[in-house]
Write a structure and sequence with these properties.
With about 400 residues, the protein is of the alpha/beta class. Helix content is about 35%, strand content about 25%. The strands form four sheets. It has a seven-stranded mixed beta sheet, with helices on both faces. It has a five-stranded parallel beta sheet with strand order 7-2-1-11-17, covered by helices on one side. α2 runs parallel beside α12 and α12 (about 320-335) runs antiparallel to α13 (about 345-375). The longest helix has 30 residues, at about 345-375. The radius of gyration is 22 Å and the shape is globular. The protein binds flavin-adenine dinucleotide. Flavin-adenine dinucleotide binds near residues 12 and 324. InterPro entries: FAD-bd, FAD/NAD-bd_sf, TetX_monooxygenase.
Length: about 400
């Protein structure tokens, strides 16, 4: 199917690249504008699990499922749940992952591999690198179309602009004044590299996948990727300015780790404390932001959003990438459906937005509940019960 729509996708994250691939499979052309200078410019972060009815479904329709299976790690699903004192409540490394259907078949894949899989599937020159969007505006010369103002120039006359530009989306600014709000939680991301040789006890402690500890006002999530790295996310429920006012010198990682441990995790079991100290290769404090649950915008012809740009949530529902890829699947269907008749596009986009508003709200509520559970003393028992179908 060919089309004469001029489509811009802003952002080459999972949402933007999935959308571009799905459109191209149906011969609908688009250009992806990405602020990174190149695919290698920035680490893409750790491992993510793709759900059967989420990211996997989008990859199936994108014709990339077999390759995803080859790159993914089903063993990475294994989860260990422990209490703050080290008591093991569940260890799927020992019991196997015998979960209810809704929680099963969620193989892990490294973000970098997912991005490369999607990039390799696109026609050459689909992604234009080093294009930082500053603002989007209605075209002055072509009524009904939009122009994109980048740091280094303007691209004019798009019939459809899709904001796939993540948490701090610039495209979103034309649809709503709403900005992300602080969720009440800050996470310190700590890395341990070459764990099989340099941090064997941490590797044994975490197992093949992830190891989570939840407690009142604090949480520790350790996760392995396929590059022999373990990321330890030490979360604390603290005010928005805590990163700057807590007195921890983040520029001196070893000191920061010691202070974090001493002030917030000192009464934890020895293996948990060791996990914080072992992960000493990189330290990144991350405030967790979210869009208000149920946020919507008034439809505007020629502009829409996918992924975090549309419904940013914290990481405590574990669904962000899956929703982002599902949005792209739904939007691609809407666009493909009316690629031969552009006049049908506004209605198709409105219907798409109704779907993602409802789905986004549903998962934002679950994620809110997840955040409460992750930072509560009962959270580990509750998660174990759910995973065991009790
Ligand atoms: C620490 C952490 C752990 C997580 N773990 C999980 C998990 O286990 N499972 C899960 O499902 N989700 C997880 N998430 C959430 C997940 O990362 C996001 O939901 C997902 O990446 C959203 O995809 P996206 O494509 O919408 O946005 P992004 O991945 O943010 O991609 C946006 C892209 O747009 C580009 N961009 C931004 N601004 C501009 C601009 N002005 N101009 C041009 N380009 C721009 C960015 O460079 C980026 O490439 C996690 C998030 C974090 C922070």
């Amino acid at each position: 199917m060919s089309n004469n729509l001029r489509i811009a996708v802003v952002g080459a994250g999972p949402a933007g690249l999935t959308l571009a691939r799905l459109l191209q499979v149906h011969s609908v052309a688009c250009t992806v504008f990405e602020l990174d200078e190149s695919p290698a410019r920035r680490g893409q972060g750790g491992s993510i699990d793709l759900h059967r009815n989420g990211g996997q479904q989008a990859l199936r329709e994108a014709g990339l499922f077999a390759e995803f299976r080859r790159l993914s790690r089903p063993e990475g699903e294994a989860l260990k749940l422990i209490k703050y004192d080290g008591t093991v409540v569940l260890d799927e490394n020992k019991t196997g992952t015998r979960r209810p259907e809704e929680f099963s078949d969620r193989p892990e894949i490294d973000r970098t591999k997912l991005r490369q899989l999607l990039l390799d599937s696109l026609s050459p020159d689909t992604v234009v690198w080093g294009k930082k969007l500053i603002t989007i505006a209605e075209s002055s010369s072509m009524p009904g179309k939009h122009d994109l103002h980048f740091k280094d120039g303007v691209e004019e006359g798009f019939d459809l602009v899709v904001g796939a530009d993540g948490a701090w989306s610039r495209v979103r600014n034309i649809l709503t004044d709403q900005r992300p709000v602080y969720s009440g939680v800050t996470v310190i991301e700590l890395w341990a590299l070459h764990v099989d040789t340099r941090h064997q006890s941490l590797a044994e402690f975490v197992g093949a996948g992830s190891c989570f500890m939840f407690d009142e006002g604090r949480a520790l999530q350790c996760q392995r990727d396929s590059e022999n790295t373990i990321r330890v996310y030490a979360g604390v429920r603290q005010p928005e300015d805590w990163v700057n006012t807590c007195g921890i010198d983040w520029s001196s990682p070893e000191e920061a780790q010691k202070t974090l441990l001493g002030q917030y995790f000192n009464d934890c079991g020895p293996a948990l404390k060791q996990a914080i100290m072992d992960a000493s290769d990189q330290l990144i404090p991350r405030q967790m932001w979210m869009l208000p649950v149920g946020m919507r915008w008034k439809p505007r012809e020629g502009v829409t959003l996918v992924g975090d740009a549309a419904h940013l949530m914290t990481i405590f529902g574990g669904v962000g990438v899956n929703l982002a890829m599902l949005d792209s699947l739904d939007l691609s269907r809407a666009v493909i459906d009316c690629a031969g008749d552009a006049s049908r596009l506004p209605d198709a986009i409105r219907r798409y937005e109704e779907v993602i508003f409802a789905r986004g709200e549903q998962y934002a509520r679950k994620t809110e509940k997840g955040l409460k559970g992750h930072f509560s003393a009962k959270g580990v028992d509750e998660m174990a019960r759910r995973l065991q179908g009790r």
